[in-house]
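Have a close read of this protein, sequence plus structure tokens, and explain what the tokens say about the fold. Thanks in advance:
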Amino acid sequence: MSAYQNFLDFFSMRNKERLDGLSESYFTPMTREERGMAFEFLLKRVEQGGTEESVNGLFRADERRAIEPIKRLLASGALNGEAQIAAAWNLYRIERDPGLLSIFVRFMSDPDTELREKAAYYVPSDQLTGELKSALQGMIRTETDQTASINAVNKLLACYEVTRESVDKETFSSFYRGLRIDDPAMKEQTFKRLDSLYD
């Protein structure tokens, strides 16, 4: 079986491998021609609204070639929510454009829980703008979905470089508990502690 046929077969799977997504292992054995065919196949799917899987696959098939069509589709509003988040994540990874952060911020208040979860999970943590900080704090104050709330807490801490690797366990736990607690006053106090210690 050719590597390209193996790639096509992926889209009819309904098992764990499909859930794991289109990994690099589908593209590595392809010839240049097959990669081009895979790129065109994925681009058609993305042009119809796209998914996280199809956008990520497009960048795996040919990262440099994916940039322009993804920028165009993102600007035109042709992508659905999941695809917009994946597009912004992939573009930011390459270009570090802070203008892309507003896409994640917008989805942090979306009515769709899954989009809020993904926006908080995928938003880059290396540029804590005022807009991003407000959006993450807003989620931490009001989010009712546990996964979305945890993603927002983890991301805000990462923005301040407070991770399990960068600080001791006790310090991390103190900040984490302060943001996850049901007490609004304690959350506000923890926001202030983060600002005073790490801003």
The chain has twelve helices and no strands. The CA atoms of residues 117 and 148 lie 4 Å apart. The first helix runs from residue 3 to 10. The two ends are 55 Å apart (CA to CA).
